[in-house]
Amino acid sequence: MLRNFKVLTPSSLNEVLYVISHIDQPYRFLCGGTDVLVRMKDNPAYAKVLVDISKIRELAKIEEHKSTYVIGSGAKHDAVLAYAPFVEKYNGLVEAVAAIGSPQIRSIGTLGGNIGNASPAGDSIAPLMAFDAEVELRSHESNRIVKLEDFFIGPGKSVMKSNEIITKIILPKFDGLRSGWKRLGQRRAVTISKVSAALAINCVKHPNGSIRVADVKIALGAVAPTVIRARKTEKFLLETPNLNAAAVKQACEIACRESRPITDIRSNTEYRSEMCGVLLGDLIDRLVFGR
Ligand SMILES: Cc1cc2nc3c(=O)[nH]c(=O)nc-3n(C[C@H](O)[C@H](O)[C@H](O)COP(=O)(O)OP(=O)(O)OC[C@H]3O[C@@H](n4cnc5c(N)ncnc54)[C@H](O)[C@@H]3O)c2cc1C
After folding, report:
1. Among 5, 52, 102, 135, which is least packed by CB within 10 angstroms?
2. What is the C-alpha separation between 99 and 91, in angstroms, rounded?
3. Beta-carbon neighbour count of residue 135 at 10 Å?
4. Helix 245-258 vs helix 269-289: angle between axes, to the nearest 10 degrees?
5. Where's the FAD-binding PCMH-type domain (predicted)?
6. Count of domains observed in the chain
7. Residue 115: enclosing H or E segment and its boundaries?
């Protein structure tokens, strides 16, 4: 049973910003509560004060702008899955969010909570990072935009200051990228990822049959202290004159070497590292060769 904690319930974003700039005790946000309450049960010291942001409407919107989509940090996973432009053009994000937890978890869990938790296994993070997403961090005094790739600094740690909140996730619009996401876990559903990979890729087929990679973005989850971009693999693919089977194999080997996994209760270093290549190979097969 959860005992001895305080819940503050600001009624607008301005009130949230005021509360977190004046609070003098360690606190956590309560949005869907699917992470924070579980952790408090395991460790009552995890949070003694919760700032309930679950009813702040301005945090829950998803909007289309000229060159971006802006997702409020309080947008629920189900809302992301129901947003038509994402279903059409951001398949990698939709696949990842659809795999989070169970229908119950997706109906209350949020993207802001998945990011705020800063777990290297947070499933929405790899596709968002692969799409070059940014987050808006707001405090009472300031407002800054941080690339998601620069947001995380370790397991459970980010550059967010104690007087800041993630208000928005900013997703650039792209032309021509096909994307996908895949993970391995102990089970097919309601499982924590052992390894995950997100790929967004645009290939051009030449009349001579060769395939050139015009654009590629790869992010790997649960294989380093934070979700990471596989920059060396991306560079190799962009410079490859023809994306044939040998080039795909080489790209997958580079991805394995870019990972820095640990051994823990869910998996071990060798398996995680090897599976980075397997997942990337599967995604290239599906998105480029339609297999
Ligand atoms: C049974 C079960 C299955 C799960 N399966 C998965 C899974 O498959 N994949 C996966 O990735 N996760 C999974 N989770 C974890 C969790 O559901 C997700 O991470 C979810 O997205 C968290 O969102 P939330 O709104 O519930 O976060 P909360 O629990 O409300 O908050 C989580 C953390 O984020 C911080 N936070 C929340 N909102 C903000 C904000 N706007 N700005 C800054 N910080 C913020 C809070 O301070 C807290 O530290 C599972 C959890 C359970 C209980």
Report:
1. 102
2. 12
3. 26
4. 140
5. 1-176
6. 3
7. helix 111-116
65 and 131 share a domain? yes
Asked whether residue 179 is assigned to any structural domain, the reply reads no
pLDDT average, residue stretch 91-102: 97
Q: Are residues 112 and 129 in the same domain?
A: yes
Instruction: Quote the ligand 1 centre to 34 CA distance (angstroms).
Output: 5
Q: Domain containing 225: what range?
A: 184-289
Residue 177 lies in a domain: no
Q: Which CATH number belongs to the domain containing residue 211 in this structure?
A: 3.30.390.50
180 lines ligand 1 (CB under 6 A): no
Residue 31 Cβ inside 6 Å of ligand 1? The answer reads yes
Nearest CA to ligand 1 atom 50: 101
ipTM over 0.85: yes
Using CB atoms within 10 Å of the CB of residue 163, give its burial: 0 to 12 exposed, 13 to 18 middle, 19+ buried. middle
Q: Which residues have a Cβ under 8 Å from the Cβ of 79 and sit 6 or more positions away?
A: 60, 62
Residue 131, pLDDT > 80, answer yes
Residue 27 lies in a domain: yes
Residue 76 has what DSSP assignment? B
